[in-house]
Specification:
Helix content: 40-55%
Strand content: under 5%
Order of helices and strands: HHHHEEHH
Strand order of the largest sheet: 1-2
């Protein structure tokens, strides 16, 4: 039997896309559960990635994409001179401040995606080093890209966290829910 799902639920396309994005954001956030700031900025694996740096990066990237879709400049302009700061905390940034910012970015993304008339609507992505030509992209493409980008880094976060203290994604989900895994 087919059930009717209200448009605002996860059953509609926007809701499904936003739900998948929220799920991947959860992986990033959970990777930081129970860690000190010192642990969160450490780089225990073969890469130079830290959990705090991954958090900062995904929040910044998501905000930047939504800003571009709105026709606004990103909150942080990155180029060769400051790219190295994209994956690490600088100045007075903390894990807590980055988590709060990521929560705000997520709310802004959801509000924006729910407000566009159609996922087929497009925006101009101007030339950048990672996008060598002016390109019109749909809101649907934007959602899928954010899911892909966040999932990629959530996978990195899984590896970094497991390298740090052995905690796995399943254990962190259980911990977040107040239980234990296994």
């Amino acid at each position: 039997m087919v059930k009717h799902v209200p448009a605002e639920a996860h059953g509609d396309e926007r809701g499904a896309l936003l739900s998948f994005l929220a799920e991947q954001r959860g992986g990033i956030r959970r990777s930081l559960l129970g860690l000190t700031d010192e642990q969160a900025v450490s780089t225990p694996s073969a890469s130079e990635l830290s959990l705090a740096g991954l958090l900062k990066h995904v929040a910044e990237v998501e905000q930047g994409w939504i800003a571009r879709a709105k026709g606004e400049p990103p909150a942080v302009h990155r180029d060769e001179s400051n790219w190295h700061e994209c994956f690490r905390l600088v100045g007075d940034e903390t894990v807590d401040s980055c988590l709060a910012y990521y929560e705000k970015v997520a709310a802004d993304t959801e509000a924006f995606i729910r407000s566009v008339p159609s996922l087929d609507d497009t925006f101009l992505l101007p030339k950048t080093p990672w996008n060598p030509k002016d390109e019109q992209l749909s809101m649907r493409w934007l959602c899928l890209h954010l899911i892909r980008e966040t999932a990629r880094h959530a996978g990195h976060a899984d590896i970094v966290r497991e390298s740090l203290d052995g905690a796995t994604a399943f254990e962190l989900v259980a911990k977040e829910q107040g239980g234990s895994w296994g």
